[in-house]
Amino acid sequence: MPKILVVDDAAFMRMRCSKLLTENGYDVVEAENGLDAIAKYKESKPDAVLLDITMPEMDGLTALKEIRKVDPEAKVAMVTAMGQQSMIMDAIKSGAKDFVVKPFQPDRVLAAVKKLVG
């Protein structure tokens, strides 16, 4: 069962995403900001990461770069609100493999995760 790290500062978004993934056969680990995401990544070694861009303490772009230092093969999809196209481009250049736009469609989240875990 692939393990997915879901990172979002909004508890509701984490819960919604975690429920969707769990119902579809994934094991889920949650983190509430970039700093927490790096610690949880090192600890749980997930197969893929869904990483929000805009968060307190450490944003998703910084967390992406730090996670890729820990694991250059990390499979990360960014989760972003509409209108953050420039950040998406930065994320792709920094190693993100995909992105999901909020409010997310369940099918789009599942497609992104399937793409990441192969």
Total tally of structural domains:
1
Topology as H/E string? EHEHEHEHEH
| Euclidean distance between termini CA atoms | 12 Å
Sequence stretches where pLDDT stays below 50 over 5 or more residues:
none
Mean pLDDT: 94
Distinct helical segment count: 5
Fraction of residues in helix: 40-55%
CATH superfamily: Response regulator
Structural classification: alpha/beta
Strand order of the largest sheet: 2-1-3-4-5
* CA gyration radius, whole angstroms: 12 Å
Report the portion of residues in β strands. Answer: 15-25%
CATH class (first level) name: Alpha Beta
Q: What overall form do the CA principal axes indicate?
A: globular
Q: If classified by CATH, what would the architecture be? A: 3-Layer(aba) Sandwich
Number of strands: 5
Largest sheet: 5 strands, parallel
CATH fold annotation: Rossmann fold
Descriptive overview:
This protein has about 120 residues and is α/β, with parallel strands linked by helices. Helices cover about 45% and strands about 20% of the residues. The protein contains five helices and five strands; from the N terminus they run βαβαβαβαβα. The protein has helices spanning about 10-25, 35-45, 60-70, 85-95, 105-115; strands at about 5, 25-30, 50, 75-80, 100. The chain has a five-stranded parallel β-sheet with strand order 2-1-3-4-5, with helices on both faces. α1 links the parallel β1 (about 5) and β2 (about 25-30). α2 runs parallel beside α3 (about 60-70). The chain starts with a strand and ends with a helix. The mean pLDDT is about 95.
